[in-house]
Amino acid sequence: MAMSGQNLSFGVLLLPGFQWLDAAEPVDYINNHSQAMLQANNLPKEDVEKGPIITWHYISFDLKPVRATSGPTLNPSTTYTDCPPLNYLLVPGGDPNAPLPPGCAEFLKERFEGLKGLLTVCTGSLSVAQTGLLDGYKVCTNKVALKAAHSSGQLNKNVHWVGDRRWILDRKVWSSAGVTAGIDLGAEFARVNFDPMLVELTKMIAEYKPKPDQPDEFAYILDGIDYNN
Ligand SMILES: *[C@@H]1O[C@H](CO)[C@@H](O)[C@H](O)[C@H]1NC(C)=O
């Protein structure tokens, strides 16, 4: 299963007002398994070749910089219409109640079938759920936002929301709970897909021990809330 030497085309959907950390964590963590990063770290050639070759595409409706909630802007590298073929698409959290930007739902619907995986962090899943693509899937999201959407009646009840895990994989949908769970999702994606030696090396470089899906010490946020009904 290790994607050694494979070319991976990875998209990152930049929703207006995205959370910097939601995007940065899994992107940096996954990217640290790539040949480019391994080379930069002066690893021997035979080890570098164990990594995938990752191309990142930052996607928006146009090429204007997209501002994160904390201020920094990110320059999209492509648009919904021009985006090259993708193997994976990552959706960091934005404002879950904001309607998707024009063309975004169409882009997601067009691309979903061809993806090997869709990854969502935090409220990213609530945004994608607006399209109906997650209907019938087991999906994690930010628990505080899930609670708010449930009480305001804005929650898509066709999705099977999961409130007691940091992340979950259902078929090809990888979703994580609030903000920091995104790095654990990235680490799980790496564990499943990349060379085990590189997975260990990346943990050491990041000085991070990825958390499992359960126990989820924040599950209490949804105690007593019947969010799937
Ligand atoms: C990725 O690797 C670089 C170079 O070793 C390191 O500086 C950086 O902190 C790593 N990033 C993550 C998220 O592990």
From TrEMBL:
Gene3D superfamilies: 3.40.50.880. It comes from the Eukaryota. Residues 1-23 form the signal peptide. InterPro entries: Class_I_gatase-like, DJ-1/PfpI, INH-QAR. It holds the Pfam family DJ-1_PfpI. Keywords: Signal. Residues 54-189 form the DJ-1/PfpI domain. The keyword Acetylation does not apply. This is DJ-1/PfpI domain-containing protein. The lineage of its organism: Eukaryota, Fungi, Dikarya, Basidiomycota, Agaricomycotina.
